[in-house]
Amino acid sequence: MNNKANKNDNETGDAKSKDLEMNREDATDQFLTTNQGLRINDNQNSLKAGERGATLLEDFILREKITHFDHERIPERIVHARGAAAHGVFQVYESMAKYTKAKFLCDPSRETPVFVRFSTVAGSRGSTDLARDVRGFAVKFYTDEGNFDLVGNNIPIFFIQDAIKFPDLIHAVKPEPHNEIPQAASAHDTFWDFVTLMPESMHMIMWLMSDRAIPRSFRMMEGFGIHTFRFINEEGKACFVKFHWKPLLGVHSVAWDEATRISGKDPDFHRRDLWEAIDDGAFPEWEFGVQIVAEADEHKFEFDLLDPTKIIPEELVPVQRIGKLTLNRNPDNFFAETEQVAFHPGHLVSGIDFTNDPLLQGRLFSYTDTQLSRLGSPNFHEIPINRSVAPVHNNQRDAQMRQTINKGRVSYEPNSMGGGCPFQAMMKDGGFHTHEERIDAKKVRARSESFHDHFSQATLFFNSQSEAEKNHIVDAFSFELGKVDIIEIRQRMLGILTQVDMTLATKVADKLGLKVPAKPEEPVNHSFGADTDPQSVQPTKVKSSIEKSDALSMANTVKDTIKTRKIAFLAADGVDGDALNSMKDQLEKAGAKTKVIAPKLGKITSSDGKEIAVDESFLIATSVVYDAVFVPGGQQSVNALKEEMDAIHFVNEAFKHCKAIAATGEGVDFIGETFAGKTKDDKAVILNKDNANDTAQSFIKAIAEHRNWERETARKVPA
Ligand code: HDE
Fold first, then answer.
1. Residue nearest to ligand 1 atom 8, measured at CA
2. 487 burial type by CB count under 10 A (0-12 exposed, 13-18 middle, 19+ buried)
3. Dihedral (CA of 117, 121, 127, 130) sign
4. Residue 476, exposed/middle/buried by CB under 10 A (0-12, 13-18, 19+)?
């Protein structure tokens, strides 16, 4: 019998570590061998017929090595190919037994090991991290009762309502088939052609055009399970649940111009950021949130809980924060762990169940199917990163790359020859029991009328944004549609935008040099079969019971910490060492990371003759990967910076991207000359000629604000 469930949390965590340990190679003090264990004497030369002769077919060592190399690649994920991942733990704050019998959510003393993979959706495996895109947020919980995968995104809704449209959506967003352009970008004709014919995508498009699609860091993104799921408690009572991840560092994004530059300067920006934070011991944390809706309230909302293009506004059902996820260990091997991990929304534990969301239902088929082509065998669950810590016993057998050596003669059930083992688990022993949902319906290919409202939450999202966020959305639409060649598609999109917000449509039209349709063009609903006249089933707009939701705007996020923020110090020989070190101490005490950037690598000497190590030269450094800039005084240092075009560009660019800038002593002159008075009254430019003590505190406050977007709206950016 499975007695694992009685084990305590530490044993569970240990079990996963041991499991991975068994497969982890340690070559320390070992000989080089072939795959058969034969020690290799010469790994430099192939076997030849004479020193200058041809290579011999007999060279089994050469052939083994090259054959293995030739087959090193597996197909990349069809979507979410580009990703990065980390190990960690999850712990619930208080028992959720009232709602669910899932043990990892009922025992606050239990630490559940997890593996989390973040990703972009459209780009190939080698594409940039900073593409405008949805981010995947997939969590594998290795619970005592089996693996539970919460395969979510950083946007709480999806483009389409029915799984049957997924291949169309992905074909439309991927590089176009004739020339494979563009990589990792939605700014092209086929994507906008498709979405403008699928008005159900409009809520998601609003999120995609917002800064949520260009996160500052994986560590500063929310995560969402998207679909409505079910919790089931010990008594068999069900309720609906939506899952959320809330980052403790807040939700922050970069500016679009910054994103395009980071893509060139450091396409691994998010991957590196996650890796370095964990490496430095600054473990990323999220709180796990749930929105719970009683079964009896299923129909009380103006939207359908089964419609994946809708959120439940937090004002209607608050998010209860019930536990914490901490990522605390980088993978040892990208391929073995991050690439081979196989998530599946159908990896469930007792106490959690599905709903009939038609998108979720389709996903339940897709994820196993895709592993068969990606990982090549139904035995993908035996790969160490995918293995459950709960024991696995069934009569499945054989197939490519089977690891388990099943013993005995019996691989069927019922049996008497194996003592009836393995046997079915009763519910009290954790046997999974599907929630008994009543069904009394015709078998139809159809979409519920309750799914027809495509615009009210798109409008709610727009209304909930700050001025700066709204401007960014206008810019994003203008950029993306500006890259669309076919004018009719641009025009069609403007027609749809009029249904979301007239001002938004007008501003985008203006930037595109087009007219907003005088009378809002009726978008045609294409969500029906051939026998339905699409004009007869127009999308509707239901009156939303709330006009604005604070939770939807990043302007209302956590802004009281500078932990893990990267601050650039621009300096040269003759820098005021005391000013530099004092600022460094105070920022680092507050959790930030500082780097000294100078005209060349090596060391600089401060005005009082002390050596200061240089982290990066201007040739290597770029402002776009930093959150803020500090220019300390020291006449000689500032004179040298004034001669350095890259130093001037550095602060200029940081200013353009609305970052906090501080300068003390003669550093103030550098800023003054560079910006010719444009920094006056800017709350995120802290200038202090006298090195006053409160400079660091004001600087910290400005960095914690993340960006001074007002600078952008005032349109006084000099760069
Ligand atoms: Fe996925 N999705 N998806 N998806 N998805 C995959 O599975 C699919 C959807 C999501 O880091 C694939 O193993 C269909 C929604 C994430 O490994 C594939 C539909 C959401 C990841 C697949 C959806 C997601 C995937 C490709 C519509 C948010 C990356 C590789 C019915 C809730 C997981 C793989 C990782 C990956 C199919 C829609 C999230 C092809 C058919 C909605 C985070 O099976």
1. 363
2. exposed
3. negative
4. buried
Token output for 527: 């969500």
Positions of the chain with pLDDT under 50: 1-10, 719
423 three-state secondary structure: coil
Q: For ligand 1, pick from 137, 162, 366 the residue to mutate: most ligand atoms within 8 Å of CB.
A: 366
Report the pLDDT value the prediction gives residue 715, as an integer from 0 to 100: 56
Q: Which atom of ligand 1 is nearest to the CA of 341?
A: 17
Ligand 1 pocket residue status of 370, Cβ below 6 Å: yes
Q: Please give the span between the terminal C-alpha atoms of the chain, in angstroms, as a whole number.
A: 69
Instruction: Compute the distance from residue 203 Cα to the ligand 1 centre, in Å.
Output: 19
* SS3 assignment, position 74: coil
**Cα–ligand 1 centroid distance for 367 (angstroms):** 7
Radius of gyration of the chain (CA): 29
Distance between Cα 99 and ligand 1 center (Å) = 27
pLDDT tens per residue across span 386-420: 999 999 999 999 999 999 999 999 999 999 999 99
DSSP 408: S
Residue 694's identity, in one-letter code, is D
pLDDT over 70 percentage in the chain: 95
79 Cα–ligand 1 center, Å: 7
Using alpha carbons, list the distances in angstroms from residue 463 to 260, 385, 474, 500: 27, 43, 13, 10
Q: Is the CB of 80 under 6 A from ligand 1?
A: yes
Cα-Cα-Cα-Cα dihedral of 405, 408, 414, 417, to 10°? -170
Query: Side chain identity at 657, as an amino acid letter?
Result: H
Instruction: Report how far residue 128's alpha carbon sits from residue 134's, in angstroms, rounded to the nearest whole number.
Output: 13
Q: Is the CB of 77 under 6 A from ligand 1?
A: yes
Q: What is the pLDDT of residues 153-197, one digit of tens each?
A: 999 999 999 999 999 999 999 999 999 999 999 999 999 999 999
* 371, 342 Cβ separation under 8 angstroms: yes
Task: Name the β-bridge partners of 323.
Answer: 92, 288
Write down the pLDDT at residue 17: 65
Res 6: pLDDT: 37
> Which residue(s) pair with 86 in the sheet?
116
Q: Is the CB of 117 under 6 A from ligand 1?
A: yes
Ligand 1, atom 23, lies closest to the CA of: 363
Q: Residue 522: what pLDDT?
A: 73
Instruction: Assess whether the C-beta atom of 194 lies below 6 angstroms from ligand 1.
Output: no
Q: Identify the pLDDT of residue 23.
A: 77
DSSP 457: H
String of DSSP letters for 27-56: -TT---B-TTSPBPS-SS---BSSTTSPBP
CA distance 565 to 627: 6
* Contact between 181 and 476 (Cβ < 8 Å): no
Tell me how crowded residue 646 is: count the other CB atoms within 10 A of its CB.
16
Q: Is the CB of 362 under 6 A from ligand 1?
A: yes
Tell me which residues are annotated as active site. 80, 153
CB 384 within 8 A of CB 465: no
The protein residue with its alpha carbon nearest to ligand 1, atom 24, reads 152
Q: Are 162 and 525 in contact (CB under 8 A)?
A: no
Residue nearest to atom 28 of ligand 1 (CA): 152
pLDDT of res. 628: 98
